[in-house]
Design a protein that fits this description.
The protein has helices at 32-43, 52-58, 67-75, 98-101, 116-122, 138-147, 159-167, and strands spanning 6-13, 47-51, 83-88, 107-111, 128-131, 152-155, 173-178, 206-213, 216-222. With 230 residues, the protein is of the alpha/beta class. Strand 4 (107-111), helix 5 (116-122) and strand 5 form a beta-alpha-beta unit. It binds NADP nicotinamide-adenine-dinucleotide phosphate (NAP). The site of NADP nicotinamide-adenine-dinucleotide phosphate has 28 residues, from strand 1, strand 2, helix 2, strand 3 and helix 7. NADP nicotinamide-adenine-dinucleotide phosphate binds next to strand 1, strand 2, helix 2, strand 3 and helix 7.
Length: 230
């Protein structure tokens, strides 16, 4: 499996497994210390991927926040922040979203074929829009990223994207952060939806690490032999 980048999935959930609530506001599940840990993980990757739903809903910057970590990357001959990657079927992406306007990292949009032309026009000068077929196959996307020099990819959500990488067996490591409260609203997105996962009662995932970070807990699961479980 060396023809695709190392894939690290990262997300935070409530105690009842929600990624968000159903309000219009962004729900803060993590805490400052954990966000700093996430920043360090970002700084160690070549690219960060989120689904178009997360770009629309959360308007994330997806840059390395720490000036020291940005400087260290630059000193190693890397861009200050990893490339930003998203995937869309319909191409409904706002060119003024922070994904496109913050930082100077490369931005790549994997777009389903029927929407490529209009998306390319909408995002001209803001991103490289790649015709990714119909439907977009995560394995193909990973192979394409490998061809662009991405060796280590961080996937930061949302539910749909995380579910696809997990069910396809295209994940090496999962960083799951548990926030100390409940959402309790079935209208909110859960970590993942229904699906057939490679990890089930007959094939349990390996815990590589647990760490308390203030009031949250990080569980690092090794999902492939590529993940160092020590
Ligand atoms: N707690 C956390 O750590 C965390 C992290 C990230 C996100 N979130 C939350 O997760 C929620 C968003 O999750 P979500 O499932 O709605 O969105 P998502 O996974 O971010 O994005 C889903 C969208 O991505 C595109 N997409 C995904 N797979 C595709 C494929 N194979 N081919 C073509 N397009 C594809 C589609 O975009 P189009 O609709 O454009 O076609 C789809 O609607 C938000 O509430 C956000 O706050 C939480």
């Amino acid at each position: 499996m060396t023809d695709r980048p190392y894939v690290l999935l990262s997300c935070a959930t409530s105690m009842d497994g929600y990624l968000d609530d159903a309000s219009g506001q962004r729900l803060l599940l993590s805490n400052e210390a954990d966000l700093d840990r996430v920043d360090a993980v970002r700084a160690g990757c070549d690219a960060i991927l989120v689904g178009a739903g997360t770009v629309r809903r959360d308007d994330p910057r997806l840059v390395v926040r720490s000036a020291r970590r940005r400087a260290e990357r630059v000193a190693r001959g890397l861009p200050a922040s990893p490339a930003k990657v998203t995937v869309t079927g319909c191409g409904d992406l706002d060119p003024t979203a922070r994904f496109f306007t913050t930082g100077d990292a490369d931005r790549i949009v994997y777009c389903a074929t029927p929407a490529v032309q209009k998306t390319g026009e909408r995002l001209a000068g803001r991103a490289t829009v790649v015709d990714a077929g119909e439907p977009v196959d995560p394995a193909w996307l990973l192979a394409d990223l490998a061809g662009r020099g991405v060796d280590r990819l961080m996937v930061e959500g949302g539910a749909s994207v995380l579910g696809q990488f997990l069910t396809a067996g295209l994940a090496d490591e999962l960083h799951l952060v548990l926030a100390p409260f409940f959402v309790g609203d079935g209208r909110a997105p859960r970590f993942v939806g229904d699906g057939t996962f490679p990890w089930h009662p007959g094939r349990r995932a390996r815990v590589a690490e647990t760490r308390q970070i203030g009031d949250v807990v990080l569980v690092r699961y090794a999902l492939s032999e590529r993940c160092d479980a020590t």
